[in-house]
Amino acid sequence: MTDLLWLWILLGVVVVGGGAALLVPRSHRRPPEVEAHDESTTIAPAPAEPSAGPAPGAPPAAEPGVAAPEAPALETPEPVAGRLVRLRDRLARSGSPLGARLLSVLSRDHLTEDDWDELEETLLLADIGAGPAEELLDALRTRVRVLGVRDPKSVRDLLREELLKVVDPSLDRALATTGPVGDDGTRLPAVVLVVGVNGTGKTTTVGKLARVLVAEDRSVVLGAADTFRAAAADQLQTWGARVGVETVRSDRDGADPAAVAFDAVRRGRTDGTDVVLVDTAGRLQNKAGLMDELGKITRVITREAPLSEVLLVLDATTGQNGLNQARVFGEVAGVTGIVLTKLDGTARGGIVVAVQRELGVPVKLVGLGEGPDDLAPFDPEQFVDGLLG
Predict the structure, then answer these.
(1) CA-to-CA distance for 246 and 243, rounded, in angstroms?
(2) Is the Cα torsion angle 296, 298, 299, 303 positive or negative in sign?
(3) Range list of H helices, 320-379
(4) Rounded CA gap, 316 and 325, in Å?
(5) Given pLDDT bands bounded at 50, 70 and 90, which one contains residue 59?
(6) Strand 337-341 and strand 363-367: pairing?
(7) Rounded (5°) CA angle 227-229-230
(8) How far apart are CA 43 and CA 209, in angstroms?
(9) Which of 320-353 are b and which e, b meaning 16 or more Cβ less than 10 Å from the residue's Cβ?
(10) The Cα angle at residue 235 between residues 229 and 237, in degrees rounded to 5
(11) Main-chain phi, psi angles of 183, to 5 degrees
(12) Which residue among 57, 154, 297, 343 is least enclosed by CB atoms within 10 Å?
């Protein structure tokens, strides 16, 4: 009888313990696609603000003669307003090859067919694309013939107006940095996924974008989901630490990028963060397996919060190859905006028009150089003025 009693007690303990496990909230568990992944994700904290004395439980001070490790100094990013003005001024001082050639030809006394062919060649070499180039030339032919403009100021005004039309100032270029309201009434973070091929500067762009958001007083969490390139997480963590932003990363190379992305979004949701920026590995558009991996990251992230933006980073100097990349990523990742790096290479400025036509989405940000604050919201008017000098 005693043995039977103990058996019933043991069964009761097992049932109660199993039921408790079932009561773990879903929001604190990884989705099935990453459930089996080992718990190797860590939070790389932002540097602490200086304090008056040691915090309770802090490690003892370094011994005399032993240098203590220095936390990276916090930097204050430049204000975002006016950044593209620097690009315009830089283009104007250097003499944009595209704008200078167009103005030179259009200012001639009599425009022959050879002159129009030269204009077309100039536009195509600037990667503007055949369709937009034809539209621009047809509009210029008609207006030059009707108005008979030849003086430099009138030609410049005419060309500015037509270039602005093909760059399309009507597109919404605002970055979605306000997340939706969740079912529980709390504000979810805006989740920005950054994608692109190797060598376009994705990780650097994510770091610079964090600085843009910090300059606008937005709180940010970085997700280092590029787990295939050994230095990517370190690089991203360094960018974040410089402006006091935390980075969620894996402890080991080759970890499941979807798990890291999920944990970054969950961290942002738990902390009430405004924006979560997720860096992904550089993917070649002809690698079906890697593109499938990108699809998995997207599916897993949206279990925790919807995507607010998918930004495709393109190198402005790659021309038609960049358009091929844009086409594939647009099909797979649902791209909502373009970031063009190396736009200070002025001869290829037409890529802005071509990539917008290819994807039907706007260029939202442009990289202007190598400096940490050389990323700016794209402004069509400032850009066209820079091209024309």
Answers:
(1) 9
(2) positive
(3) 320-333, 351-359
(4) 12
(5) very low
(6) parallel
(7) 90
(8) 20
(9) eebbebbebbbebbebbbbbbbbbbebebbbbbb
(10) 115
(11) -60, -25
(12) 57
> Rounded to the nearest 5°, which phi and psi values hold at 246?
-80, 150
Other beta carbons less than 10 A from residue 3's beta carbon: 6
**How many C-beta neighbours within 10 Å does residue 57 have?**
5
Q: In angstroms, how far is the first alpha carbon of the chain from the final one?
A: 98
pLDDT(15) > 50: no
Token pair for 223: 């997700």
The Cα-based distances of 295 to 39, 196, 226, 332 in angstroms read 22, 13, 14, 7
CB 58 within 8 A of CB 265: no
Tally the residues of the chain. Answer: 389
Residue 23 half-sphere exposure toward CB, CA atoms < 13 A = 6
Which residues, in sequence order, are CB contacts of 337 under 8 Å at separation 6+? 173, 175, 309, 310, 311, 312, 361, 362, 363, 364, 365
Please give the structure tokens belonging to residue 215. Answer: 């300059």
Dig out the tokens for 196 from the structure: 């692109």
Instruction: Report helix, strand or coil for 221.
Output: strand
Q: What is the pLDDT of residues 147-162, one digit of tens each?
A: 777 777 888 888 889 9
Give residue-wise pLDDT tens across range 202-223. 999 999 999 999 999 999 999 9
For 195, the 3-state DSSP assignment is strand
Instruction: Write the CA distances from 151 to 27, 148, 279, 386, integer angstroms.
Output: 67, 10, 50, 20
Give the mean model confidence (pLDDT) for residues 21-37: 49
List the one residue out of 328, 386, 329 whose CA is nearest residue 352. Answer: 386
Residue with tokens 């992305």: 261
Give the integer Cα–Cα distance in Å for 214 and 119. Answer: 43
Task: Report the distance separating Cα 69 and Cα 57, nearest Å.
Answer: 18
Residue 176 DSSP label: -
Supply 102's token pair. Answer: 């167009």
Q: What three-state secondary structure class fits 206?
A: helix
User: What tokens were used for 7?
Assistant: 């058996």
Residue closest to 352 by CA, chosen among 126, 138, 144: 126
